[in-house]
Amino acid sequence: MRRAIQRREVIVNKQTLTIACICAFTALRMFFTFFFFVTSVICIVKSGSRIEKCKGQVSFSQKTIDALDTTSTFIETTFSSLLIFLLYRWKWFHFKNFLKALPKQRSAWSWAMLWILRIVTNVLIDIIPSVKNGNYMLVVLGISLSFEFFSTTIFACAIQFVFLTQVTRWINLYFTDAKCRFIWLYRIVLLTYGFRLLSLFLYDSFLVARHIVRESEYKSYDQILLVLDAGYRGSLSYFFFGKFFEFSIPEEEEVVREVQLEEPNEEREAEGRGEIRVDPENDRELDSLALLGESLLA
């Protein structure tokens, strides 16, 4: 009995620590998303050049902005990796079946191809010019962006197999005291992903709309790469917002029971009156089988 109580306490402590980490990461992610969106909008609106720069438009230096953006990408990568690990450890999520079903997902293939193009963008636009200029902070930013979108894409592919009904049942089973809070925590996590990707999508769209290119030797390809980046981030943002607005759907058994209660069962009524209900289609099949048997005997 004591061992069971101690084991229960250990599980509760682990759950509390996990929830605290999720809440802390969510707050940090919201802060960095808001900071990135505000500073990027100010830089784009006030900038009069066709080159992506942010000098003098905000009170922070360009190096500070790059450092904060790099920090945000590391936080996103760590948080997505944590969620993927939790899904792997979750007994209600069959990770092996997910790996088998992953190649059959059309969205996974499209996101994978866009992620590869995202790596090409990071190499051509961020890494190569930064190495030549000696700005290694942008090199780290370019590499970290690749890892961020890799982990985000894997999490998006995995969360496709997780439904709100399943999450609600699990929360009701293990968190009966504050189940509404945990359901909203699940929704808020999805919402933060949607806002993060939406801000990046809007940033790329602003650059394309105002014909602003990034500092690189491959400026002729920059507009095409920006359009592909916007499509990649926009599709992921659309997916996470769709998961946020997902509602519980009754199970098939409950739907069948409701239909049976609403509609009278004619077969049961006939059996109750001692009648045998005849199906004309079944009679035709029996007649055809009888004729076939007679022809074989003859």
UniProtKB/TrEMBL annotation:
Annotated region Disordered: the residues are: 260-282
Biased composition regions of type Basic and acidic residues, renumbered to the chain: 270-282
Q: Which keywords describe this protein according to UniProt?
A: Membrane, Transmembrane, Transmembrane helix
Q: Does the keyword Transmembrane apply?
A: yes
Q: Where is the composition biased (Acidic residues)?
A: 260-269
Asked whether the UniProt record includes Membrane among its keywords, one would answer yes
Question: What domain of life?
Answer: Eukaryota
Name the residues that span the membrane.
Answer: 17-45, 66-88, 108-125, 137-163, 183-203
Q: What is this protein called?
A: Uncharacterized protein
Organism of provenance: Pocillopora meandrina
Organism classification, top ranks?
Answer: Eukaryota, Metazoa, Cnidaria, Anthozoa, Hexacorallia
